[in-house]
Amino acid sequence: MLVGDYLYGDFDDQGIPWCAELLTGQIKSKKRGTGKGSASFAAADGCQYIHFADGTAALARATPDAYAELGSFKVPGSGERPSWSHPVILQGKLYLREQDRILCYDVQAM
Question: Nearest Cα to 106, choosing from 13, 58, 91?
């Protein structure tokens, strides 16, 4: 995921969020997140929304300085099979697909 001049992603498909400078490829930060397994990302309002394969959803600052997780929760209905869908943010709402359900969370700043 590209935010400004930095790329954010999952290191080795292991649930380890990392940040690299786009122009140089230099890794700026890399730290294990709350969830386990592969992770998918979306960005909005200076934050990254991360959905891990174990069904954990996390919110972290989109900053190259360090991985700073602000909070996390287990997505209802997760656990039996891997969660591989990407989070989607549209008009202040976070959409997560978990198996055969779509969940919607209001994440709009007040």
Answer: 91
Alpha carbon distances (Å) from 22 to 14, 44, 54, 102: 21, 18, 29, 33
Which domain range does residue 52 map to?
Answer: 2-106
Cβ-contact 4, 18 below 8 angstroms: no
CB 99 within 8 A of CB 55: no
Split into its structural domains, the chain has a count of 1
pLDDT along the chain (110 residues), means of 10: 95 91 95 92 94 95 92 91 92 93 86
Q: Quick check: pTM over 0.85?
A: yes
